[in-house]
Amino acid sequence: MTSDLSPRSTSNVWVWWVCFVLLLASALNYMDRQTLSNVAPRILVEFQMDERQYGNLEWAFGWAFAAGALFFGILADKINIRWLYPAVLLAWSVMGFATGLVETYENLLLCRLLLGFFEAGHWPCALKTTQRLLPVDRRTLGNSVLQSGTAIGAILTPQIIKLMLTDEPGSWRPAFQWIGAIGIGWVVLWLLTIRGNELSPKSAPTRDTSGDVNADRSFWDSVLSREFLVLVGVVIFINTGWHLFRAWFPLFLNKARGYSENAMLDFNFAFHIATDVGCLSAGFATAWLYQKGGLSPLLARKIVFTVCAVAAGLAGLLPWIPNGPVLVGVMLVVGMGLLGLFPCYYAFSQELTMRHQGKVTGTLGTIAWLTTSPLHPIFGEYVKRTQAYDQALGLAAVMPLLGAGLLWAFWPKPQPTSTP
Asked: CB 3.0–4.6 Å: which of 7, 20, 118, 346 could bond 92 by disulfide?
């Protein structure tokens, strides 16, 4: 097969620039997603919603995300990412913008559903890109740059909202519209960065792919493999912890712990700075353990994943932690752990197959969201009745430890003759 990639595709500077552009896309993905949770106290009042109805918004988002993950995963293996990616991002930006215009709960629910469907296309496109551009030993770091954008988006969102919120009931609406409009700028940047055939499914990568031992594995061989079954458990466990915190942490601070709106936004700001630090640290730690520590990429990744799972599991202590510096410190460590898990998981998933990475990513995403999304209304009903967030959030954050156990117990050891 003749490669259609340009010579600059071998340039480290260009490759890491692409990773930075992916970071920006992740930031926009989470800015559009997290705006709702940051203004949730106001929306509950304006739309006369209870926690169960708020949970239904997250449920609709999650199930639509599940459908979109599979749909766009299939497309990512067939369509040039240069065109698919900006189309997806523009579509979710439109839905984010439209959320600021809704007047009824039903329309809010519809916007949330369509936002979830189109946002799901981000991950197959992004992971297909890092898989094609980075060798095995650098993918965790590349994925950490990509994933850190979600934390940056979550960091920026409460600050943007603070600048826009006033005492007026509808002052939350412009935040959705401004954040949605930013997507147009990213589309232009992407099209200027990626040339016509550089990410085409018909073009072969110019880098060495000897580390991709399953590069030519078929889709069905991939999803029937032991590795895939392990990742099904892993992705469910880490998504349970992360997405319950992502959606409910602001309400936990405001309604359960009594933080004011400004204090809640500031705490959420600090929490997501910690998630960004944890995400990038996971990538750099994995690279260091491989390059300086002499460990295989697989072992380095397992160790970092486990450390992150232990950090996230500290949230199990929430029922016994009072407000104040100790709560802040523990939550920052928890945030570092929760997001640091994902770059490792993505790198594991990229080892299953190269030709069908989009479908594999989409299938895992569909399974994760179908499984974890129904937890939101259950969570909402629980806190509606008990007003107790601590136990449920603590249990969710302990789940990644089970994922670490699966990786150590069942992930196949590399063959002695394979290249790391």
From this structure: 118
